[in-house]
Amino acid sequence: MYKIYGIIKDVAVKKEREIILYHRLKYCTKEIFKLLTIITVAFFIIITIAFIKYNPVYAVKLNDEVIGYVKSKTVMEDIINKEVLTSDNPCAIFTELNVEPTYELKLSNVLADDEKKIAQILSENTTTMYKVYAIAINGEIESYVNTLDEAENIIQDMKNEYSDNVATISIEEQYTKDFDSVGTETLEVARASINSDLRNIKSEQERIAEATFNGVFFSVKPVTGNITSRYGAVETSVRNHAHGGLDIAAPYGTNIKAAAEGTVSYSGWMSGYGYLIIIDHANGVQTYYGHCSKLYASVGDVVAAGDVIAAVGSTGNSTGNHLHLEIRLNGNKIDPQLYIYK
To answer: How far is CA 15 from CA 6, 138, 257, in A?
Structure first.
């Protein structure tokens, strides 16, 4: 009986303890909830005060250095794509940033309206690749234009004006990061420049053709001076036959230059010529340089046009200091003025 009573008493005590523990837990829970509520309210009050005084902004950095503040990262990136990485130059292929900017979200009281300033700084830290079209004459670039259409337009105009044998005109596609050093030209300026170059080439070709005899180009006047007797002239006081060459007056000792490249076949005294140099050129063409005071070139010497071969004098059958110049083809005399001293 006592044993049963003890068991009942123990159960009652245990139950009472559980009730007490439950009420304590309930109380603690309410207190914790109150505390969390206070903390939450305080947090929102602090955040509200912070947002009233400060704004969330993005600090834009380049190489870890702040270059400005913006309110929206999305807006800034849109400005970069549309303004910084886009070029109005028709030759620009693409533009890239040398260093990518980074963004750091902050609370700040700055105005955060540095979009233009940031865009300017980033523009100075970009690299642009350009594609241009070079117009080359005989393999040498003469002008640059912006588009293929412009280049083809110029070439077609030049082909209509000049024959194909004047020069070879071609287009070369080129890429560069230094657009200013290339210096493209407007269509009209480039066309005028190419036209001028081709005109000069044509004039030079005509000059060479006029100074070429049987494949030999007489590019140099042997001496500079006045012509005192022309080819075919008959001067009985000097000779009793038609003049077979050209006399050019020049001071004693003036250098005489080879009119064209060739090999010296004679260097010495010859009857009425006095001291004489003969140069053999291609295709049976020879030049004679007579009445020299000194001979500098020797037989067998290979000379280029413009090389000094002798000096002006008055040796042989001569009435004064001058150069007697002859051109011969297979021994037959040709008028030098057809090709030199025109």
So the answer is: 14, 112, 137
Query: How many angstroms separate the Cα of 28 from the Cα of each of 21, 24, 219, 334?
Result: 10, 6, 116, 132
* Mean pLDDT to the nearest integer, 166-190: 90
- Band of residue 164 on the pLDDT scale cut at 50, 70, 90: confident
Taken in order 18, 19, 21, 25, is the CA torsion positive or negative? Answer: positive
Beta bridge partners of residue 69, listed in sequence order: 59
Instruction: Encode burial over 153-188: b for 16+ CB neighbours within 10 A, e otherwise.
Output: ebbeebeeebeeebbebebeeeeeeebeeeebbeee
Please name which of 171, 244, 242, 162 lies closest in space to residue 205, comparing C-alpha atoms: 162
Q: How far apart are the first and last CA of the chain?
A: 159
pLDDT in tens, 212-236: 999 999 999 999 999 999 998 886 5
Closest-CA residue to 120 (of 179, 65, 76): 76
Q: Where are the domains of the chain?
A: 2-53, 56-124, 130-210, 217-338
What is the third-level CATH fold of 217-338?
Glucose Permease (Domain IIA) (2.70.70)
